[in-house]
Design a protein that fits this description.
The chain has 20 helices and nine strands. The chain has 503 residues and is mainly alpha-helical. The strands form four sheets. The protein has a three-stranded antiparallel sheet, with no helix packed on it. A two-stranded antiparallel ribbon has the order 1-6. The protein has a two-stranded antiparallel ribbon with strand order 3-7. The longest helix has 26 residues. It is globular, with a radius of gyration of 23 Å.
């Protein structure tokens, strides 16, 4: 009973100290006694959340070409001006970005590397202990299925941040693989990108097998936990990155045809108003949503900083977000495309500017609602895009066009099907559609990597004045992040990535 009480208290308190559970004085001190307790433990120790101070997905939107620095005139500086240099270092892909973050106190609370490994350790703990606790086959299988799915998801993020793209150099160094919660081995060398992907696929295959062994009602529930369709969509994504076109299309089709998710027709949504500004797509009420995860803070840590105006009216202070949606992204939306106004939030005081977020719970002042809503999700639209791209690359243009048109019919007013696009032109169109549909959902940076790491530039502005233009060159080493020095200091077996020269 004592063991059960201890783990229950950890759950109730939000399991703030992951280390206290995962680094016990004896390896069995805090082991729960049954599968139900382990299933609850997963929520605190393995599922994405920002309450532990690790905004693990916050880095992604800082690097790609969907954001730009505001040229707002009159800004006196950031709401936290001491962190100005850190934001600029991230925005310009500096090789010392994490050192700069650490110097101003941003690194500790936004340590993506550590945050992801903490969640992996939680999944590993469930897998380590599940066979030794009481419970039926179904009770144990659902724990295992979730743990494998989550571990695969986190390693996918790690290897795509700190390893070279799989389709570029799968033999390059990826990230260390840790598949047990045991603490005996603290220093591990980096596995190759291919080895990390092998584990990801192995975990997803096992999760899929376990879900399929369960009664149908346990394979998917409309809640915040992983599920069989979530695993199938993630498999489709991973296979797409591996350029396994046939299987990527197969799994995308499973998500589309084997489940009751449906695309939301944007024509059915009212135009945003002050009372009800934006539809929350990151909600289990949305028919497209397969899995919601994280919080708004977990993704928008850097996107919601602002500059303050030097107003001549002392009674009124104006604020502007430091980062906006890029012109390249906004100009990609054609006439009749409803997504620009439904997916991307306008700045409250200056509605000529669009902000680098949307789709989630938004307040009447056009800011994300903290604490209540999820920040990210797996949506059905990705399955259509995965299917379209995989089919096009596999010379099945009929299927590719069907998937593309099926999606676009629900996104445009007065839409006419595309019928005559073929070859690389079709692939390019599908990838552009992916950018427009999945903007600010954590896909774009990873997509740019697998597309061949193209060159693009961004400008840094301060107080309405141009400061510097930064260019990410084609195949630039900065497409693969530097391993934080604090991580290198703790693990002497790690080898640093090739770093670009300071910009």
């Amino acid at each position: 009973m004592r063991k059960y009480i201890i783990i229950y208290v950890l759950i109730v308190l939000g399991c703030i100290s992951c280390d206290s559970f995962l680094e016990p004085s004896s390896q069995t001190e805090f082991v729960p006694e049954n599968a139900t307790s382990l299933n609850e433990m997963l929520l605190g120790e393995a599922y994405p959340r920002s309450t532990d101070g690790k905004a693990v997905f916050a880095l992604l939107p800082m690097f790609d070409d969907d954001i730009t620095c505001t040229d707002f005139v009159g800004g006196t500086g950031l709401n936290d001006a001491s962190k100005f240099t850190a934001y600029q270092a991230l925005y310009s892909w500096q090789p010392d970005m994490f050192v700069t973050m650490d110097n101003v106190g941003l690194y500790t609370n936004n340590n993506t590397w550590k945050g992801l490994y903490i969640r992996i350790r939680g999944a590993n703990a469930a897998l380590d202990y599940i066979d030794d606790v009481d419970g039926t086959y179904d009770e144990k299988a659902i724990v295992k299925a979730q743990a494998y799915a989550l571990r695969a998801f986190y390693y996918f993020h790690l290897v795509n941040l700190w390893g070279e793209p799989y389709n570029y150099n799968k033999k390059a160094l990826g990230v260390p693989l840790k598949t047990t919660s045991a603490m005996e081995v603290k220093e591990l060398p980096r596995n190759t990108v291919e080895e990390v992907y092998d584990l990801i696929m192995s975990d997803l295959n096992e999760s899929e097998r376990l879900y399929e062994s369960l009664p149908e009602e346990m394979r998917y529930k409309r809640d915040y936990r992983t599920s069989l369709p979530m695993v199938q969509l993630l498999k489709s994504r991973v296979l797409l990155y591996m350029e396994n076109w046939k299987e990527a299309a197969e799994y995308a089709n499973k998500v589309i045809k084997d489940w009751n998710f449906s695309l939301l027709d944007l024509n059915s949504l009212k135009a945003p108003t002050a009372k009800e500004p934006y539809y929350n797509f990151v909600s289990m009420d949305c028919p497209e949503n397969i899995w919601c995860y994280g919080s708004t803070d977990d993704f928008l840590t850097y996107m919601t900083i602002y500059v303050q105006s030097q107003s001549t009216d002392s009674e009124k202070t104006q604020f502007r977000r430091k980062f906006n949606a890029s012109k390249e992204l906004l100009n990609g939306y054609l006439a009749g495309d409803l997504r620009k106004e439904r997916y991307i939030v306008k700045e409250y005081e200056d509605q000529s500017r669009y902000l680098p977020y949307g789709k989630m719970g938004i307040s009447s002042t056009h800011v994300p609602i903290n604490g209540t809503y999820f920040g990210l999700s797996f949506r059905l639209s990705e399955a259509y895009l995965n299917l379209a791209e995989a089919a096009a690359k596999d010379d099945d243009e009929t299927t590719a066009l069907w998937a593309l048109n099926e999606l676009r019919r629900n996104r445009f007013a007065d839409y006419d099907d595309i019928q005559s696009v073929t070859g690389e032109e079709l692939v390019t169109l599908i990838r552009q559609e992916r950018r427009l549909e999945l903007c600010f959902e954590g896909h774009r940076w990873f997509d740019l990597r697998r597309y061949g790491m193209p060159s693009f530039s961004r400008e840094w502005w301060d107080n309405g004045k141009f400061v510097k233009r930064y260019t990410l060159e084609e195949n630039d080493p900065s497409y693969t992040l530097p391993i934080p020095q604090a991580v290198m200091d703790l693990n002497k077996k790690l080898v640093q990535n090739k770093l670009a020269n300071p910009r």
